[in-house]
Amino acid sequence: MAKPKKTPRPKAETPKGFTDYFGSDVTQRKEMLDGIAAVYHRYGFDALESSAVETVEALGKFLPDVDRPNEGVFAWQEADDNDKGDWLALRYDLTAPLARVYAQHRNDLPTLYRRYAMGPVWRNEKPGPGRFRQFYQCDADTVGTASMAADAEICAMLSDTLEEVGIPRGDYLVRINNRKVLNGVLEAIGPREDQITHDNVLRTIDKFDKVGEAGVRELLTKGRLDNSGAFIDGVGLSEDQAAPVLAFLTSKAADAAGTIANLRAAVGDSKVGQEGIAELEQIGELLTAQGYGADRIVIDPSVVRGLGYYTGPVFEAELTFEILDEKGRKRQFGSVAGGGRYDDLVARFTGQKVPAVGISIGVDRLLAALRAKGRVSREGQGPVIVTVMDRERMADYQAMVSELRSAGIRAEVYLGNPKNFGNQLKYADKRGSPVAVIQGGDELDKGVIMLKDLILGAQIAENATLEEWKERPSQFEVARGDLVARTREIIESHS
Amino acid sequence: MAKPKKTPRPKAETPKGFTDYFGSDVTQRKEMLDGIAAVYHRYGFDALESSAVETVEALGKFLPDVDRPNEGVFAWQEADDNDKGDWLALRYDLTAPLARVYAQHRNDLPTLYRRYAMGPVWRNEKPGPGRFRQFYQCDADTVGTASMAADAEICAMLSDTLEEVGIPRGDYLVRINNRKVLNGVLEAIGPREDQITHDNVLRTIDKFDKVGEAGVRELLTKGRLDNSGAFIDGVGLSEDQAAPVLAFLTSKAADAAGTIANLRAAVGDSKVGQEGIAELEQIGELLTAQGYGADRIVIDPSVVRGLGYYTGPVFEAELTFEILDEKGRKRQFGSVAGGGRYDDLVARFTGQKVPAVGISIGVDRLLAALRAKGRVSREGQGPVIVTVMDRERMADYQAMVSELRSAGIRAEVYLGNPKNFGNQLKYADKRGSPVAVIQGGDELDKGVIMLKDLILGAQIAENATLEEWKERPSQFEVARGDLVARTREIIESHS
User: Fold this and answer.
1) Which of A257, A346, B24, B466 has its CB surrounded by the most CB atoms within 10 Å?
2) Within 13 Å, how many C-alpha atoms sit on residue B409's CB side?
């Protein structure tokens, strides 16, 4: 008989690009999501949790020429009897599922469907440092209205949300642009250019932050020598054609009215451009009337990122403070949320255009920002550890943790091998426990317990003089009946 | 040139076996999960959120003989350069990922790792009515101790958790058994039988609830005619061999001591059986000392379900009240949580046994139970709707919702086409709004607003007499400055 092949041990590893979140990583994110949901809810949005799995068809990432439609998404084919099942995939954002949900349930939903959603999304991309293939998004969308009041509301809500979770006014800016204005600028270049030129113009606009006005001018026309000495080909526009693009990029003025006037000049008599400017004006007026000034929300023509499926106004929330990157260099934190108006997504399913506008907050980036600024609640406190001095008296120790828990104090009895007392204290230390409770035979006879203030103990060990050490003992005896009251005292003395 | 093929519209459908959750479906579950997490946290467990995606290898569902290892899980192969990437899969529970996490991070984790986790899991099974392929679990586990105090604690915590989320004492029972006792019974059958006989015995034990003692006796021995007249083959044991199994099944006595004595007789001198009984005794003593009596937690030899990878004590929480099923028949609600001790899961990765014990709550079933008993918070209230009487005055209406929101009142301005006022009220109705706010030109001139109490209005419309109608107007004029105060009054009058 052949020897059975020995199965090698499986590797204990997260798949590439995935990660695990421990303790306060989880609870801090939850706290932030709760804060965001509270604002969204107060604004009248209802919760929606769609399934993590969608048909590839519904997601719209179907590439008919490839065997497996897994470009950008994690996809697999359902196995049915003749192995010709549907292709399914993990959602890559929360907007595509919303379009599917709205199309599927539109007869049961209110005429305006206002929903918020939060949860993980998955991207089948090459993972990089700090770039994960599973991450959280938190979205709010209003489906079913073309009113600019909905767009203004989304911007106001985004501003309120950032302040709610701990980004103070002045540390962020919601910037608004309009895809239609950009289209107007492209029209103003002159006779409609082919798509490739438009794409090249858009790509060049995106470099404005890096190369400035003069650089963009060169790149739009004859080309440019970059810092390394390499020559970058130009788009090939004439100076006249480049003019509206440059006017657009430099249209930001001291106030909204000034910016609007500049934009109006940039788009010339392009109808779509004028329409976009009128929309920006409306949004601006509504926000101003509600007291959202330029310290919170501004019209900013340089917002071009992620214009993909947007058809009108686009928004971006940027954190304006500087942080130190991994190499210790100062840099702007940058964007933490983006959104806009997309009027074509539902039409994919139903053939009818349904106007919609929404925002998506990059939860993990926002959380990283809050951490960088020290604005998340401090490390969650570990449990009080009731140590085990006599393993026959486990029930007594359990009674102590029960009392503590009933009083709302996080507590546990040491459940490992109690033989080595040092290991129990090491465990308490590893858990970040504030207090260890000790009751051996002597204490039992006297009706007392020892409480060890572990936070004070650590402070004393680190920097106390002998006098301080004597004056502030970190370990003391209290009556058994005072367990809860005295433990609470210690915990509160450190909060 | 060939005509481009027209792409048919995608179907707007959730994949088979998946579903979407709307509004209070989402918030009620969230509230329940928050309640469970609070108890787990108070007991000293830390949060863990592992990735939804694992390698198939780590999940341990690898079937070497099939092309695609997707039996029971949703799996796909990573595409790398030569198309020979890892097989990845969605997690099917939260325990297998815990074993992987513990094995991967064991050097950084405390010697006892106590974690809770909650989130969706996925099963690639044929969907059926009410059976979904994505559902929530909520687990707590202690890894790294063989102490029965950990098992007792899990049972106590499960009891506390059920009460915390709204299942009162008396409406549930945590039942404990021990896999080792069952193994002892199998030993007591006589000379070690082959695996198939053991499996058949286990399957027969599982039918005890249905066919009773006499039925099991027949099934274990010579076979049995079932109700339909069909003959079911017996396992083929002798009466003597069947005796310990029947003694085991009927060992439940009026109190724990009685049950233990009966079990002791059933396992005879099987060492593993006696060990299991000693463990049950220890757990029982610890729980009794903490005041968890037979009204909450009992030793019950009929708990055999899901003994799969368990190696010692097993637990099950059952709801004991009756509900009406879809056909109006009374039935026990049944199990909402299960768990036990599993000492071999981490060893798959490391080769070293790591004792562990945990519990998993079936969140969706528990929520269904709470709903069936009317014990979830009532339908979340819709937002106050500020109607739009004059579309030029949108900023005024936005100012009203801002005031309401600042006062913590959920509110929104109607963002659809305001032309038809009836549609605005229909929308408010569909959203479950408590109040509609109305201000046309007349009201504006007088410095007032109209408040429409929509809940009262609905009640009056349904059953009021003419007198009542006159006495309790559901719509009245208030000063503009009283918007917040009077709106709050109306909302509070209905809560």
Assistant:
1) A346
2) 26
H/E stretch holding B441: helix B441-446
Helices A179-188/A239-249 angle, 10° precision? 160
Q: CA of A373: how far to CAs of A322, A331, A366, in Å?
A: 10, 13, 11
Q: pLDDT tens digits, residue range B394-421?
A: 999 999 999 999 999 999 999 999 999 9
**Contact criterion met (CB below 8 Å) for B338 and B359:** yes
- Contact of B207 with B215, CB cutoff 8 Å: yes
Whether A105 maps to a domain, the answer reads: no
Which CATH number fits the domain that encloses residue A400? Answer: 3.40.50.800
CA atoms within 13 A on the CB side of B441: 3
Residue A300 lies in a domain: no
On chain B, the residues whose CB falls within 8 A of the CB of A143 are none
Within this chain, do residues B352 and B307 fall inside the same structural domain, yes or no? yes
Residue at A425 is within a domain: yes
| Chain segment B355-391, per-residue pLDDT in tens | 999 999 999 889 988 888 877 766 668 999 999 999 9
Q: Is there a contact between B351 and A289 if contact means CB atoms under 8 Å apart?
A: no
Residues B131-170: tens digit of each pLDDT: 899 999 999 999 999 999 999 999 999 999 999 999 999 9
- Contact between B412 and A114 using a beta-carbon 8 Å cutoff: yes
Please tell me which residue of chain B has the smallest CA distance to A78: B74
Q: Which residue has the tokens 């890892």?
A: B86
CATH of the domain at B148: 3.30.930.10
* B325 and B429 co-located in one domain: no
Q: Residue A10: its chain B contacts at CB < 8 A?
A: 55, 57-58, 60, 348-349
Domain coverage including residue B454: 384-493
Total H helices, total E strands in chain A: 18, 19
- Both B169 and B265 in a single domain? yes
The residue assigned the tokens 């040491």 is A414
**Beta-carbon separation of B51 and A134 below 8 A:** yes
The verdict on residue B190 lying in a domain is yes
Q: Which residue has the higher pLDDT, A206 or A424?
A: A424
Q: Taking chain A, what is the end-to-end CA distance rounded to the nearest angstrom?
A: 69
Would the CB atoms of A398 and B285 count as touching at under 8 Å?
no
**Is beta strand A313-324 parallel, antiparallel or unpaired with respect to A172-178?**
antiparallel
Q: pLDDT tens for residues B414-445?
A: 999 999 999 999 999 999 999 999 999 999 99
pLDDT class of B274 with cuts at 50, 70, 90: very high
What is the distance between the alpha carbons of residues B313 and B175, in angstroms, rounded to a whole number? 10
Q: Indicate the number of domains in chain A.
A: 1
Secondary structure class of B223 (helix, strand, coil): strand
Rounded to whole angstroms, the Cα distance separating A91 from A119 reads 10
Structure tokens at B456: 């009262």
User: Which residues lie below 8 Å from residue A91, measured CB to CB, with a gap of 6+?
Assistant: A50, A52, A53, A54, A59, A97, A121, A122
Residue type at A473? P
Across A199-203, A271-275, A381-385, A480-484, least confident range? A199-203
* Angle subtended by helix axes B208-220 and B239-249, to nearest 10: 160
Are B321 and B452 contained in the same domain? no
- Report chain B's terminal Cα–Cα distance, integer Å: 69
- Whether residue B479 is found in the same domain as residue B428: yes
Same domain? For B350 and B485 the reply is no
